[in-house]
Amino acid sequence: MSHTAIAELFLPLLGPQRCLTDADSAQRYGVDWTKVWAPAPSLVLLPETVEEVQEIVRIANAEGLALVPSGGRTGLSAAAVAANGEVVVAFDRMNKVLHFDPLDRAVTVQPGIITQQLQEFAEQNDLFYPVDFASAGSSQIGGNIGTNAGGIKVIRYGMTRDWITGLKVVTGKGDLLDLNKGLIKNATGYDFRHLFTGAEGTLGLVVEATVKLARRPRDLTVLVLGVPGFDEVMKVLHTFQLDIDLTAFEFFSEKAMGHVLAHGVPRPFDTVAPFYCLLEFEQLSEQVGERAMELFEKCVEAGWVIDGVMSQSLAQLDQLWQLRERISESIAPFTPYKNDISVTVSKVPAFVQEVDAVVQREYPDFEIVWFGHIGDGNMHLNILKPAELAKEVFFERCNNVSRWVFEIVQRYNGSISAEHGVGMTKKPYLGYSRSAEEIGYMRAVKQLFDPNNVMNPGKLFDL
Known about the structure:
Blueprint: H1 3-14, E1 19-20, H2 23-29, E2 43-45, H3 50-63, E3 67-70, E4 87-90, E5 97-101, E6 106-109, H4 115-124, E7 127-128, H5 141-147, H6 154-157, E8 164-171, E9 176-179, H7 193-196, E10 204-212, E11 214-215, E12 220-227, H8 230-241, E13 246-253, H9 254-261, E14 275-282, H10 286-301, E15 307-310, H11 314-325, H12 327-331, E16 337-342, H13 348-362, E17 367-373, E18 378-384, H14 391-411, H15 436-449
Parallel strand pairs: 2-4, 3-4
Antiparallel strand pairs: 1-2, 5-6, 6-10, 7-11, 8-9, 8-10, 12-14, 12-15, 13-14, 13-17, 16-18, 17-18
Helix pairs in contact: 1-3, 8-13, 13-14
């Protein structure tokens, strides 16, 4: 079917302003942050109501069309890439707050609301939405749900899954399901809400979400510590966690810091260390601050910390966070090949040492940049492309070594994708984290909710 014929199916429903066939729209809406597949959608649709989404799905089933959901297009797994003539369903116009209840501390929103807008809404009501990451200013809550987004606060607050108390979804058959209805306690059988969270749009489309909110953290304080190695990173984490409830524990290498420093962020202290930890906590009393300094001194005496600094103001806190939050931005021009891997926290030092040995051996001419949410066992391994090397050759070399990395992940019972999702980039490697039996059950679930395979086909796994 031609692109014009496909557009004519939806024009009576949405009109020409919300059925986009031009090349610019295809480039804008058919992609995410991955750079492997070129966008090639047949059509971009911009629904505004739940009923319109249902009708889009019904037409897709009747005509045998594939649908790709599109949120903020900040994903890193190509789950939102329309590379094979699919119809993109973009939720940019479904971006409203629908209901807020201060007693329940819950807000119901449409899927296109920007994550940062949700955070700001919470702040305006003296509350807090804690799921936070570098793309919060452009990602959408529907995409966050689709990938079960994590970020920098997981050690204290958990993943997106932990904050969704209700979902309305349109299944692959066009049915509207109202899941859990915002309840905190509900023991009435299968909770399909958790199936759709992290499903990458392969079961259906999220059209509403009820999100619980938390109290706002108070008197946040940051420590940035220079450490000699991964073993010492974990000793520092253990030492602080025994006495202080951390809201974040991040790490990054000197190479990662070098890229951020090149973008104008000042070095936190004069001493250069191989790795750095960033710890955040609520300094609710003088005693908490004093205890943090005592623990810092203990780590220095033990040789686990080389140097460090503690924020003394909100401005300094923000500046120290820039060291971590601007890494992705600063390495983006180098077309990084990203591995988003995780193991249980206790296994991190041995795991990272094995992985690092493999990539250093196989990529002697590539720059390797480590950073991540090490407090929850999640590391981001970034391999930077040399300027003179063609993108296709670079990705091919990285893919070859990824299998060796994922063999280590499998041996440590880890995950090949801690928070970025599977999409198309990690699809060939899903078997390193999921058994054949699990994948078989996942396919069966897919066929139940989406029997005609119209929902984001070719993502996560193939039928």
